[in-house]
Amino acid sequence: MRLREQPLHALSRQANRGRLYLDQGAARLRIRSSIKGFIRNLHLLYGAFPYLQADTGFADHHVELRRGRRLRALIRPQSRFRTDGQEPFEPFPLHGALPLFEWGINWSFAQRANQYILLHSGVLARADRAVIMAAPPGSGKSTLAAAMMLSGFRLLSDEFGVLDPNSGQLLPMLKPVALKNQSVDVIRAFSDQAVIGPLFVGTRKGDVAHLAPNETSTDGLHRPARPALVIFPAFEAGAALDCRRLPGEDAFAHLAFNSFNYHLLGPTGFHAVADVIAACPAYRLRFGQLESAIEQIRALLDEADGNAQGAAQRHPG
Amino acid sequence: MDISYRRLGDGAVIFSHRTWKTHILTPAATLIFEALDEVRPADGGPVPRAAALALLRQDLDVETDTPSTQQLLRMLRRLGVIA
To answer: What ipTM did this prediction achieve?
Structure first.
């Protein structure tokens, strides 16, 4: 059963009792909240996720979204985020509970999931062959990831490339894609399949709305993907498509030094990132149009798959 | 020499287990590192400085007094590749 098939009032009751669970793949959350607007947004944006019973038990992160108390419940009401006894952020306005939750989860996961290398990247897959998309904020990474999901790729993550150093595979850490400013309308126009939540105006990161992961993505919550291609995208309005192969050592530096926890993991992180770069061609992709960028990524993935198959035939076993 | 070395195409990366720092090697630096690694003493100790400079000048035709080569040599000394 999917979360959206559960009546809203039943989810609200579970959340009120602190027994609403969310499975994001690499992490499971237990949520307590009495903020009805927040639960309504979860119902919409996490609608395709599996519904978990109230007695599910174990969770990696225990989070609470609650209203401000006393006067703050009446005058400029607030939402506050707590995770495992910590309150890492200043309160948000009550209606901003969803972005506060999303950033709070990112913070919690980045603090604690150090059994993995957490690349600062989106990850999408075609037939369990993963494309790692790493770029700084403002480069169009999230918009491109959203458009790729709406074009048939499976979304594993928009924010974290969760690399398991033992298997060398990437795990899903699936959450709604945070679209900022003009990207919201760009994705709305890109596909009528896009399920987009409310627009939160004037947040610290500008105007933000979230794109719900689709069923193709939520059905693969526990299916890892093997790295096949590394892309460093850079959106530039009106730019012609420009795709250049990056030297391995440059790609390594970009991927490792922008990771959330590379510096903590020593040789484990070093070898895991080197394995990715050794196995995957890396490209810098400048684009001005989503469709042509996606077409180029498909072609690069075809080429990488062909090379991988060729190598497997030359060196069987 | 307590390092991990990975060749990635023409360039390479090195991880120092002593400092936990990662070093990026350009293709030219990679050639120099690999040439020095080949002449390391059997006990795994560093290549004597004079021998390293001679190898760079004579075998690899590298000018050893340019700022970039000096910087590379300092890094290789910190890593324990040369004495």
So the answer is: 0.94
